[in-house]
Amino acid sequence: MRVLVVEDNAALAAVLRFNLERLPAQVTWANTGDRAIGMLDRDVFDIIVTDYQLPGASGDEVIRAARRSERNREVPIILLTAKERELDVERIRDVHSVAAVVPKPFSPRQVTELVRRLTESTGVVEQESRHA
């Protein structure tokens, strides 16, 4: 399973990576929205976990780029945010087909479990085990 983690806080990104790799998942990290958008143009991911507030392009722009991408258009997206009360979460879910919005602070286990459930529901985990 390939996971793109878009998070500018290096410590938080490392904790997410550690937990996600135990699923197991191959984790790619982008510390800016601009880098993530570049990766979406080149790579294919099974799930995207992105912060909302990022240097460069925002999480909203990352989500829009994923939905425009031929390769990543249908990928489940988890949005992490410290601004949950300021955002129109329902609009974000509806307009961008975001699978989940997770308010900060959060438990890394919570996000890992969410990734596991989303990838199982889309068949990513089952497909990979058949190829192993």
Map the helices and strands.
Layout lengths: L1 E5 L3 H12 L4 E5 L2 H10 L4 E5 L7 H10 L8 E5 L7 H8 L3 E4 L4 H15 L1 H8 L1
Parallel strand pairs: 1-2, 1-3, 3-4, 4-5
Helix pairs in contact: 1-5, 2-3
Outline of the structure:
By secondary structure, the protein is of the alpha/beta class. The chain is 48% helix and 18% strand. The protein has a single domain (2-123), classed as Response regulator (Rossmann fold).
Structure description:
- The chain has 132 residues and is of the alpha/beta class.
- It has one domain: Response regulator (Rossmann fold, 3-Layer(aba) Sandwich), CATH 3.40.50.
- Helices cover 48% and strands 18% of the residues.
- It contains 6 helices and 5 strands, in the order βαβαβαβαβαα.
- It has a 5-stranded parallel sheet with strand order 2-1-3-4-5, with helices on both faces.
- Strand 4, helix 4 and strand 5 form a beta-alpha-beta unit.
- Helix 1 packs across helix 5 and helix 2 packs parallel to helix 3.
- The chain is globular.
- The termini are close together.
What's the mean pLDDT score?
88
For the report, how would you describe the main beta sheet? 5 strands, parallel
Number of H- or I-type helical stretches: 6
Strand order of the largest sheet: 2-1-3-4-5
- The level of helicity is 40-55%
- What name goes with the CATH superfamily? Response regulator
Gross morphology is: globular
User: Quaternary status of these chains?
Assistant: single chain
Strand content: 15-25%
Give the distance, in angstroms, between the N- and C-terminal Cα atoms.
12 Å
* CATH architectural arrangement: 3-Layer(aba) Sandwich
- Number of domains as seen in the coordinates: 1
Low-confidence stretches: 125-132
Structural class determined from secondary elements: alpha/beta
What name does CATH use for the topology?
Rossmann fold
Q: Helix and strand succession?
A: EHEHEHEHEHH
